[in-house]
Amino acid sequence: xPTALSVNVNAIAFLRNRRDLPWPSVEGLGRVAxxxxxxxxxxxxxxxxxxxxxxxxxxxxxxxxxEYPNAEFNIEGFPTRQFLDxxxxxxxxxxxxxxxxxxxxxxxxxxxxxxxxxxLAEVVRxxxxxxxxxxxxxxxxxxxxxxxxxxxxxxxxxELYTGPYGGRYxxxxxxxxxxxxxGATADxxxxxxxxxxxxxxxxxxxxSPLISRIPYLDEVSxxxxxxxxxxxxxxxxxxxRFRRACGQKVA
Length: 251
Hints:
Elements: E1 4-8, H1 10-16, H2 26-35, E2 40-43, H3 56-67, E3 72-77, H4 81-90, E4 94-97, H5 113-129, E5 133-139, H6 144-152, E6 157-161, H7 163-166, H8 172-191, E7 195-199, H9 204-213, E8 219-222, H10 224-233, H11 235-245
Parallel strand pairs: 1-2, 1-8, 2-3, 3-4, 4-5, 5-6, 6-7, 7-8
Helix pairs in contact: 2-3, 5-6, 6-8, 10-11
């Protein structure tokens, strides 16, 4: 199966929040992305609501349920009680747990599975008891033992943090070395029966090599570059470009 594309709409929400106005519309552009064939939408509701607002969640849930029932809603964030309650209310198909401090500008590292295994196992159990698939943000550093610990939490998938890979856009040799580590991490997770997602600083140009190395990649979540490309190509065409990079057939 081709890799699924989930469009992260945080950057759209961040732009909207610069003014006390309802545009650009997170719902409207989410609809355009889904109509263009994206397989889902991703949000990261932070405690300060600096981009996605808590009030956006039921709107996007309704959009998917009413108009695109085959699409998925993915909510990512640090599992505070407030975050977990939002997830349980919104009933996403997937929750991606990230080890972010609330003050961080963006996600920049995976979980320390040795330190947080028991904590994560409790959170994973609660979400899965509600029928929600759980993915854990993970560093792509080739640590096989870390993947074994991730598996023991009961999670369904990991999401490879691809920021270091995307950040080497001007250094192909360094990017290739990081890609090898991402691939080794993914291979370990896959062998253990974990699904593998990926996200952070992925582009049309670096996505294809990633999928070539990890052909069983379940899903990519892409926001910043996809939103930037949409300023040039429009949202619908940008989604189609990323879908092609995911190996999907696009009319």
